[in-house]
Amino acid sequence: MENKIEPCMTIIFGATGDLMNRKLLPAFYKLEFENLLHKSSKIIAFARKEKSNEQFRKEVLKSTKKFSKLKINDKVWKRLANKIFYHQSEFQDVKGFNRLKTLIKKICTKSAACNRVFYLSAPPSFFETIIANLKKNDLTASSGWSRIVFEKPFGHDLRSAKKLNESIKKAFKEKQIYRIDHYVGKELVQNLLVLRFANSIFEPVWNKKYIDHVQITVAEELGIGTRGNYYDKFGALKDMVQNHMLQLVALTAMEPPVRLDAYDLREEKVKVLRSIEQFTLKDVKNRTVRSQYGAGEINGKRVNAYRNEEKIDKKSNTETFVALKLNINNWRWEGIPFYLRTGKRLKERVAEINIVFKQNHSVLFDEYVKHTEPNMLIVRIQPEEGISLQFSAKVPGKKMIVDNVRMDFCHECRFGPNSLDAYERLLYDITIGDQTLFTSWDMVEHSWKIVDKITKAWRHGKVSNYNPDSWGPKEADKLIEKDGRRWYKPQKPSYSELLQNDSKQ
Ligand code: BG6
């Protein structure tokens, strides 16, 4: 992180929403705490309701206290609060954008070049209106640089994504566009490249010769909460697979980039997406599973069926769980399946990538390893960040008995709890102009190409149901079992007791 921190103004559209409270403000607080926000930087909160700066600052102090992992220190908060301004306007109101221009001029002090970050945390249906209003008021041109940030979803299919991209391109160039995928900002996801390309022991075996298959699980315990309006239109495939899961696939499967810069890295990731075998109607039937959670119990508490959640159509056919088998038809991965599963209201919150190696057939130990699990490398993205290597070892005693053991690397035990969270890292990267961890247009385009084929085939037929507190529907087990494999249940790593994830530092 040696790049120079430049002052800038981050204008957040939709600044009273969930994302602002849960993620952005705690992230800004952490950056302020770490002195990673320039002293002349400003944050302008753009939202519909009438509020004074003071009132807004008070409200966000409350939510930052609630959602920040750090205890709020008065001095640090004061420094941050002084940077925050509130601006009332509707997204459609051209005059409101004109007033924004005046506000920017007013608070753009002499020492701060008027660099601008337009952060669209608004509902996607407003994206095009906001961009048009920025352009109309000449807000995109400033004496410094300007950048625009999009939260997902970037479109709801390839067509809408293209249309949105066309309207952005009228006001911004690709190098000014930052499409966020917060999974890429997660520490262990960033670590994938180091694991693969900075170690001599992994890269030589990272291919079809040694790897049997890859499993990626992103499971959530929570349901859809208050996001029914959005979720019912999207579902797990578009909410999680089109972006986060395909990013994980790309980082796991990509070739080494020429350099560690945004262009080269993103090029290699796109190549993976281009190599993913497109789903035919028959493939969708054989290689995808969709399901929806029913009513049940989680930790002794009754939970609603998806169809009875707030703002959900009682007859909704939206999936809250997806499992897929992807084939990557390239030199490295030909014949090696990637199994993906993700869902809400599952047994526990966990995200991990399992690299499952081929069983070693040897005259010496074939008999003994028959009942053991294969060698596995497990990248635990959350909740307890780390990497585990599973291999076979002799059980002490006179008899030859072989069992699985795991060697665990605990990220927090080694590096401490203070590494930057995904949003902290991404906000920081935007201010220093580093697009490496952001999604390029090509990635968006190719991921929609894959997803569109599936949604088209899903138009007919119905979702199945699964019980909350499970690992999904039986069909997901069948999907992998028909290939003679099974899902490996995520295990708590040995260091999990050492970590007190919830305690504030
Ligand atoms: C978001 C999805 O992108 O990621 C949510 O819209 C999901 O539905 C969330 O809950 C999961 O993120 P994390 O970081 O909590 O695993």
Descriptive account of the structure:
The protein is α/β, with parallel strands linked by helices and 505 residues long. It has two domains: 9-179, Rossmann fold (3-Layer(aba) Sandwich), CATH 3.40.50; 187-356 and 438-504, 2-Layer Sandwich (Dihydrodipicolinate Reductase, domain 2), CATH 3.30.360. Helices cover 35% and strands 20% of the residues. The protein has helices at residues 18-33, 53-67, 74-81, 94-107, 127-136, 158-169, 187-197, 228-253, 262-275, 281-287, 366-369, 411-415, 422-432, 441-458, 474-481, and strands at 9-13, 42-47, 84-88, 116-120, 146-150, 177-179, 211-219, 288-293, 296-298, 301-303, 321-327, 337-343, 350-357, 376-382, 386-394, 402-410, 464-466. A nine-stranded mixed beta sheet has the order 16-15-14-13-7-12-11-8-17, sandwiched between helices. It has a six-stranded parallel beta sheet with strand order 3-2-1-4-5-6. Helix 1 (18-33) crosses helix 13 and helix 8 crosses helix 14 (441-458). It is globular and about 80 Å long. The two termini are 23 Å apart. The relative contact order is 0.14. The model has no long low-confidence stretch (mean pLDDT 93). Bound molecules: 6-O-phosphono-beta-D-glucopyranose. 6-O-phosphono-beta-D-glucopyranose is lined by residues 220, 239, 351.
